[in-house]
Amino acid sequence: MLDKxxxxxxxxxxxxWSTSSDNGMYETLEGFEWDPESLERFKECAGKFYDENxxxxxxxxxxxxxxxYEQHGISFVLNCNGHGSGFWARIPCGSNxxxxxxxxLSNECMVFGAIEIYLWDDNLVHFHD
Length: 129
Hints:
two-stranded antiparallel ribbon, 4 helices
């Protein structure tokens, strides 16, 4: 079962994995430490999306059309940032209602907007909100 902590942790992993440094020196920001304040703000951001869509995640589980729960946080980040994957990539899932929920989650990401992190001069990951 998906819980908020799992969602947030997978969103953190997804944003680090899918973001490169501005200067192109690093293909990914995995392995870099977060600025503590930025990390807390990012967790609040991901937690807000989770809270607003918790009933949709629960319904996907009830329909038994969900996939690895840790992928939901990654899909959130990829979808918000316009990568070639996200919730919409789960369609068709074998259920018309499930397809509709994945479309709704994808649309919610578009409304939510891009999620930007960057590597600052202090060599810490910062969150731009």
